[in-house]
Amino acid sequence: MYGKIREDLSSQLQSIREAGLYKQERIIAGPQGVRIRLADGSEVLNFCANNYLGLSSHPKMIAAAHRVLDEWGFGMSSVRFICGTQKIHKLLEKKLSEFLGTEDTILYAACFDANGGVFEPFLDEECTVLTDALNHASIIDGIRLTKARRLIYQHNDMDDLEERLRSCGDAKYRMIATDGVFSMDGEMAKLDTICRLAEHYDALLMVDDSHATGFVGRTGRGTPEHFGISGRVDLIATTFGKALGGSSGGCVSGRKEMIEFLRQKSRPYLFSNTLSPVVAGATLAVLDMLSESTHLKDKLEKNTSAFRRMMAAAGFDIKPGNHPIVPIMLYQEKLALEMADLLLKEGIYVVGFAYPVVPKGQARIRVQVSAAHKPMDLEKAVDSFRKVGKKLGVIQQ
Predict the structure, then answer these.
(1) What is the DSSP secondary structure assignment for residue 38, as one 8-state letter?
(2) Per-residue pLDDT averaged across 182-204, rounded?
(3) Residue-by-residue DSSP string for 75-88
(4) What are the phi and psi torsion angles at 291 (to 5°)?
(5) How many CB atoms lie under 10 A from the CB of residue 137?
(6) What are the tens digits of pLDDT across the range 224-233?
(7) d(CA 211, CA 202)
(8) Which secondary structure element, helix H or strand E, spans residue 279, and what is its range?
(9) Which residues contact residue 87 at a Cβ distance below 8 angstroms, ignoring those fewer than 6 apart?
(10) Mean pLDDT, residues 181-195 taken together
(11) Structural contact between residues 341 and 349, judged by C-beta atoms closer than 8 angstroms
């Protein structure tokens, strides 16, 4: 039987390669950081990690992880309600609730699991979920697990969202689900308007703030703080795998009764091993650091502004905004991959994004700026982009 599927898969893989859509995994031969070593021994500047605050291999994080490893061990070998809950997990949930300004928090092995388990417990066939057209795959998959009616509203189109809210007034519960920051564009959801609509139409609001927690908002509390609606979002999902140390793990934070219900009903929580105490302890160290100072967030904002300004001056088509996700729009799939390969030869590690990660005809290189980048790193990247861009005809000579 495997002979038939092997032939089909080989054919499809070849088609993916020919279309320029094959995702090649590059090997890093050392720790994550601004400067990384590749398998061939070369060192390059990293401009495509979610390492927004530069904490992935920060000495304080490594030291915290060692301390926790010695005190609490490596793995839990169990789920939470059997014998997989330590004091350190409860402390992290308490700290996250304080940091995000919510009533309670539940931990997951990954934010993908959090989004996979946050909808089904609340929404049955009598309910409706309204979801942005560009929401992350984890939100899409989580919604698919429910029996609720699904209404997709046009991306960030508040008139379309309101029209769809009106159309489902007979639903037992209505829940709006959106990314706080959309990962391919670095664009923020219009959370102030969404929150107003949710309250007007008596709908619940769920926000995935993975690309915002730790550095968006006046003190880094995310998009609710940025839009002045802290305490009004019912559920916030986020990750520890980006700004908060870059490891693994995620959570859902929000209304007390909803979090308590997730502990009883959320399948990824009930049937997956507990988050490693090492990740829990290191994440606690991150939260303590971010609560003491906004230095890293401020450095990230400065770097982002400088990089965006220099790239625009060089003539590149970049998505507007002020987020450290900076999409360099190329539109053609093969061009994006070719440009990324040439930039690697110049010592700049970036990746070309093409369909199905982004819509067809919207291929790009997604640059991600870090607080750990130095001014000379930013200048080197812009110079390399300019050199390769001229060679490929992306910008004028």
Answers:
(1) B
(2) 96
(3) ---S-HHHH---HH
(4) -80, -20
(5) 12
(6) 999 999 999 9
(7) 27
(8) helix 277-292
(9) none
(10) 96
(11) no
State whether residue 379 is helix, strand or coil: helix
Report the pLDDT value the prediction gives residue 150, as an integer from 0 to 100. 97
C-beta atoms surrounding 162 within 10 Å: 17
Q: Using one digit for the tens of pLDDT, what is the confidence trace for 358-376? A: 888 999 999 999 999 999 9
Strands (E), the chain: 35-37, 43-46, 104-108, 128-132, 149-153, 174-179, 181-182, 187-188, 204-208, 235-239, 250-254, 325-331, 348-349, 352-353, 363-368
How far is Cα 269 from Cα 329, in angstroms, rounded to an integer? 38
Would you state the structure tokens that stand for residue 12, as one six-digit string?
A: 């499809």
Fold (topology level) of 25-54+294-391: Aspartate Aminotransferase, domain 1 (3.90.1150)
CA geometry: angle 376, 381, 384, nearest 5 deg: 125
Per-residue pLDDT reduced to its tens digit, 278-312: 999 999 999 999 999 999 999 999 999 999 999 99
Neighbouring residues of 185: CB distance < 8 A, sequence distance ≥ 6? 134, 319, 321, 325, 327
Q: Compute how many other C-beta atoms are within 10 angstroms of the C-beta atom of residue 192.
A: 15
Banded pLDDT at 397 (limits 50, 70, 90): low
Closest to 336 in 3D by CA, of 324, 348, 351: 351
Query: For the domain bounded by 59-292, which CATH number is listed?
Result: 3.40.640.10
pTM value is 0.94
| Catalytic residue list | 183, 211, 242
Per-residue pLDDT reduced to its tens digit, 135-180: 999 999 999 999 999 999 999 999 999 999 999 999 999 999 999 9
SS3 assignment, position 271: coil
How far is the CA of 3 from the CAs of 9, 11, 14, in angstroms?
10, 12, 17
Q: Where are the domains of the chain?
A: 25-54+294-391, 59-292
Q: Answer yes or no: are the C-beta atoms of 303 and 352 closer than 8 Å.
A: no
Query: What tokens appear for 180 in the block?
Result: 């706080």
Instruction: Identify which of 240, 312, 328, 267 has the alpha carbon closest to the alpha carbon of residue 61.
Output: 240
